[in-house]
């Protein structure tokens, strides 16, 4: 939809007709304040704004400033119409946030061309935004398992430890390792190993459904689980349910020294939030020590420190 802001009824009708002839719907207002109000109410529906310079109640430059403030990063092209030819005025109009400055009287061919051009630019921007979103998702995602990667984990654990210490909230970290995974690869091949990693990763992710939880691939066959606000008792319950989910996958592992299906070992540490802030490295080292102990005690178990 195109928002047309013009105080002259005759010009408003002419501009609106040009817009409709190009196949767009129109929302027509007669002053700058009404244009601002329309943007507040219909932000998601407005694709282009055609703005007169001199209007009662609020002029075009003032309303353009306000509209840009309202929209923030949500860019909408604005075509400015004015009879003024003074370069300083034109510069003010463009500085307010206008993308195009057209002089009155309105030329149908020129205005139509600019509307089409702004449409093409808006379409390209949308595609670029979608591409940037995809690239960001790829940057945050482990290539094989499609869960969060080590970089996301590193950023998140630093934030969570600070947040939970500041707000005196418990916070738990679990490091998980697939038992005898090298033997699994040697027995079934690396393609089967990759499929196993993907199945385990998705099962871990499904086991922790709160928005504040994070499951990430830590490296190789190792995964990290961040549990915001979870004390050791709650974390243990969640992890035990996770172990049951892994068991239910029933992925054969004939080379395992403990059972004939895939299992995982878990090291758990909890910060109760009562003490001083600890570093991510020291917290991870504690979890890694607990994981090592779980392996030493026979694997397929949780050891909490």
* CATH architecture name of the largest domain: 2-Layer Sandwich
Largest sheet: number of strands, sense, barrel closure: 5 strands, parallel
Order of helices and strands: EHEHEHEHEHHEHHEEHEHE
Uncertain regions spanning at least 5 consecutive residues: none
Percent of residues in beta strands: 15-25%
Mean pLDDT: 89
The overall number of domains is: 2
Number of helices: 10
CATH topology of the largest domain: Alpha-Beta Plaits
What would you report as the Rg, rounded to the nearest angstrom? 30 Å
Describe this structure in words.
The chain has 305 residues and is of the alpha/beta class. It folds into two domains: 2-139, Response regulator (Rossmann fold); 150-304, Alpha-Beta Plaits (2-Layer Sandwich), CATH 3.30.70. It is built from ten helices and ten strands. It has helices at residues 9-21, 32-41, 60-71, 87-95, 108-140, 150-166, 181-188, 190-207, 232-249, 280-296, and strands at 2-5, 26-29, 48-52, 78-82, 100-103, 171-178, 214-219, 222-228, 264-271, 302-304. The strands form two sheets. The protein has a five-stranded parallel beta sheet, sandwiched between helices. A five-stranded mixed beta sheet has the order 7-8-6-9-10, with helices on both faces. Helix 8 (190-207) packs across helix 9 (232-249). The longest helix has 33 residues, at 108-140. It is elongated. The model has no long low-confidence stretch (mean pLDDT 89).
